[in-house]
Amino acid sequence: MSQALRVAVVPGDGIGKEVTAEAVRALEAVCAASACALRLTHFEWGADHFLKTGITLPEGALPMLQDGFDAILLGAMGDPRVPDNRHAADILLGLRFRLDLYVNYRPVRLFHEKLCPLKGVGPKDVDFVVFRENTEGLYVMMGGNFKKDTPDEVATDTDLNTRKGVERIIRHAFEHAKAHGRTKVVMADKSNVLIHAHDLWQRVFKVVAAEYPGIEAIHLLADNLVLQMVREPAQFQVIVTSNMFGDLATDLAAGLQGGLGMAASGNIHPGRLSLFEPVHGSAPRFAGKNVANPMGAILSAGLLLEHLGRREEAGRIEAAVRWAVEQDRTTSDIGGTLGTREVGAAIAERLKT
Ligand SMILES: NC(=O)c1ccc[n+]([C@@H]2O[C@H](COP(=O)([O-])OP(=O)(O)OC[C@H]3O[C@@H](n4cnc5c(N)ncnc54)[C@H](O)[C@@H]3O)[C@@H](O)[C@H]2O)c1
């Protein structure tokens, strides 16, 4: 038996709790079927805990996670009872920023033609990866209000881009392309109007691309990127972009895969503790109703295993989800009739065989 994989499980809020339960079931099933020991520790951080205790991310949580765990599996954060979602910012953005998880990794694969809203588009046309910068850009919460709540109010948010931050995400995209036999990297920005911050992206992209002569480096403006993703998704292999444009482009990409319920992600610092979560939020309207699609969460557990070097188990999770889609063992968002738990159970059974 190899050393146990130590996974911190943070189900969070709303449907996060339900989909994480199924992701855990899949992890346990795939690990039980191979010689892969697993040690799961649950943390109840989220809105309920915050409303009860006033605590978002407890003091000492970061070193505790860094010292005691190999990876974090998260559900979703967000609850209407916390109108400013302060707990979500502290927990999720806190982990992303303070663990310096600068790579937002979003594989985009279509498992079956019936899931794609585009006419005549099948699995061979939708198979790319988006790398979204995850620690900078417009999401650093630098800014302020002046004359708040008056007719003269001014509000600002700063788009923060550092050379180090831009270079490391672009380099990561090229390294991924090189390691996976991909021949094209597309970088998307708005350098035509963001003439300082995105000019930096342009310059760094050219410098880094020159180190990878076998890989074609293509620049697209971010508005054109989203148009092209709909018009001809097959042209993409690897996309790299900023925090905000990546946020938007990956939801569009989820649409190509069958919707938010199908999309998985990794928040990664290569070689260090990283966090895996479905792309969707806590969908409060669906919470507790056994209707949320657990596949994005289950696929995120697969990315976690891939990150920890368990490629075979990761591949088995993806194959089991693909099988469930083919067999229509799915929730209603992608045309099925099953509940969250029933989809999770079918996938776990498949993983045991
Ligand atoms: N990473 C995160 O934790 C994260 C990400 C996005 C939003 N949020 C938070 O989640 C809350 C709700 O946000 P929202 O409504 O904009 O986004 P959302 O992703 O929670 O839901 C948007 C819609 O997508 C569909 N959907 C999402 N996940 C699904 C699933 N697993 N199965 C089936 N359908 C699914 C539903 O129709 C839902 O109404 C907010 O508080 C927001 O801040 C959190």
Please, could you describe this protein's structure?
The chain is α/β, with parallel strands linked by helices. Helices cover 41% and strands 19% of the residues. It contains eleven helices and twelve strands. It has helices at residues 15-32, 47-53, 61-68, 86-98, 163-179, 197-209, 222-231, 243-257, 295-307, 311-326, 340-352, and strands at 5-12, 38-42, 71-76, 103-109, 127-133, 143-146, 154-157, 184-189, 216-221, 238-241, 264-268, 274-278. It has a ten-stranded mixed beta sheet with strand order 2-1-3-12-11-4-5-10-8-9, with helices on both faces. The chain has a two-stranded antiparallel ribbon with strand order 6-7. Helix 7 runs parallel beside helix 8. The longest helix has 18 residues, at 15-32. The radius of gyration is 20 Å and the shape is globular. The mean pLDDT is 96. The site of nicotinamide-adenine-dinucleotide has 20 residues, from helix 1 and helix 4.
List the helices and strands and how they pair.
Layout: E1 5-12, H1 15-32, E2 38-42, H2 47-53, H3 61-68, E3 71-76, H4 86-98, E4 103-109, E5 127-133, E6 143-146, E7 154-157, H5 163-179, E8 184-189, H6 197-209, E9 216-221, H7 222-231, E10 238-241, H8 243-257, E11 264-268, E12 274-278, H9 295-307, H10 311-326, H11 340-352
Parallel strand pairs: 1-2, 1-3, 3-12, 5-10, 8-9, 8-10
Antiparallel strand pairs: 4-5, 4-11, 6-7, 11-12
